[in-house]
Design a protein that fits this description.
single chain, 212 residues, alpha/beta, seven-stranded mixed sheet, 24% strand
Length: 212
C-alpha cells in the first residue's frame, strides 16, 4: 500500500468526510478521548486528527496536538478549532504518522482513531506512538480489524486488493497488528455500530528507542 494512495483518497473525501464518517464513528471517537484524557493538564497527541471531529471532546485543561498526512483534512480541523474557540488545541501539523517530528516522551497519551489500517507500515506507526508517549502513558487505538464473521471475512479478503489502491487494509487481522505493533494491550472492547470496530486501551510499558 502506497502513502500517496492514502493522501489522494483523503483529498477526495475531505469535503464529505464529516457527513459520511462523522456520526457512524462518533461513539468510538468520544470513548477514546474519555479514556485517554482522564486527568487534568495532560499533553495529548492525536495521530490522524483528520477534520478534527474529536477535538471538542477533550478536556479544556488539556494540551492537544493533532497531526495528519492530508492538508485538506487538516485545514478543516484548523477551521473547526477556530470556529469553536478550542483553546486546548495547541497545534495542528501536517506530518507522517510513521515519522513523527516530536522528541521521545513528549506526550502523556496518544490516540490513533481509524488510522491503523490506512498507514503503509503499521509496525513503524505503532513504534512512533510508543516513542513519543511517556513510559506508563496511555495509547488508545480505534480501528476496524478483520471480522470474525465468516461471511464478512470472506468479503474483506475479496476486497483487499482493490482496497489497497485507495490506501486501506480491508483484510487486517487483529493478531497481526498486535504482534507487529508490540503494544501492551490491556483492554479490547467492541466499538461503534454493531461492534464492527475495536477500541484498544494500551499502556506504554516501554517507549521505543527508534522506529521499527
Amino acid at each position: 500500500m502506497d502513502l500517496h494512495d492514502t493522501i489522494r483518497t483523503y483529498r477526495l473525501f475531505s469535503g464529505s468526510y464529516d457527513i459520511l464518517f462523522g456520526p457512524v464513528f462518533h461513539p468510538g471517537r468520544k470513548e477514546a478521548v474519555r479514556i485517554a484524557n482522564d486527568r487534568p493538564g495532560q499533553r495529548i497527541l492525536e495521530v490522524g486528527v483528520g477534520t478534527g471531529l474529536s477535538l471538542p471532546h477533550f478536556r479544556a485543561d488539556s494540551r492537544v496536538t493533532g497531526i495528519d498526512i492530508s492538508a485538506e483534512m487538516l485545514e478543516k480541523a484548523k477551521r473547526r478549532t477556530e470556529r469553536l474557540g478550542l483553546a486546548h488545541v495547541v497545534g495542528l501539523h501536517l506530518m507522517d504518522a510513521e515519522n513523527l517530528a516530536f522528541a521521545n516522551n513528549s506526550y502523556d497519551a496518544v490516540l490513533a482513531l481509524y488510522v491503523a489500517s490506512v498507514v503503509p507500515d503499521p509496525a513503524r506507526f505503532a513504534a512512533e506512538m510508543r516513542r513519543v508517549c511517556i513510559p506508563g502513558g496511555t495509547i488508545v487505538v480505534v480501528n476496524h480489524f478483520t471480522s470474525e464473521n465468516p461471511l464478512a471475512r470472506f468479503m474483506e479478503k475479496r476486497l483487499a486488493h482493490a482496497a489497497r489502491h485507495i490506501g486501506f487494509h480491508a483484510d487486517f487481522p487483529f493478531e497481526t497488528f498486535q504482534r507487529a505493533s508490540r503494544l501492551s494491550i490491556r483492554e479490547v472492547r467492541p466499538s461503534n455500530l454493531f461492534g464492527y470496530w475495536k477500541l484498544l486501551r494500551c499502556v506504554n510499558e516501554k517507549a521505543a528507542s527508534s522506529p521499527c
